[in-house]
Design brief:
Low-confidence stretches: none
Strand order of the largest sheet: 1-2-3-4
Strand content: 15-25%
Structural class: alpha/beta
Mean pLDDT: 83
Length: 128
């Protein structure tokens, strides 16, 4: 089976998702407004996702889980989704514990250097 190469650049969705910064403990009265914000951002930007920056949300708890679940539901009803930016390990663990699988932005990986690569060289060391 073969495939003919197509001319031009591949089609890429260049729409940048909007960012909603969540700070401090959020009260139940504020949740409705934040859900409206998510729906509005999805409609005005035309993007398929809203990035929710949760770094300033505070310590993870069931209030945060409830907020994120409601934001995801509002986004789904508007035809989109939410993606978490900078969730702490405690929040990720709590979301996994309650079964709420939310997409997170890619975090840089912490890996070991490849074998045979020296991190520092001292004078007088023989070349490998």
């Amino acid at each position: 089976m073969s495939c003919r190469p197509q001319g031009g650049l591949p089609v890429v969705d260049a729409t940048t998702p909007a960012v909603l910064v969540l700070t401090g403990p959020v009260t139940r009265e504020e949740v409705e407004g934040l859900c409206d914000d998510v729906r509005g951002l999805l409609e005005t930007t035309g993007a398929g996702a809203v990035v929710c920056d949760v770094a300033g949300l505070g310590p993870p708890g069931l209030g945060a889980v409830d907020l994120l679940a409601r934001l995801q539901l509002a986004a789904r009803r508007a035809g989109g989704r939410i993606r978490l930016r900078a969730p702490g390990p405690g929040l990720c663990a709590l979301l996994g514990l309650v079964g709420l699988a939310l997409e997170t932005e890619r975090q840089p990986e912490q890996r070991e250097p490849a074998l045979g690569v020296e991190e520092a060289v001292e004078p007088g060391d023989p070349a490998v």
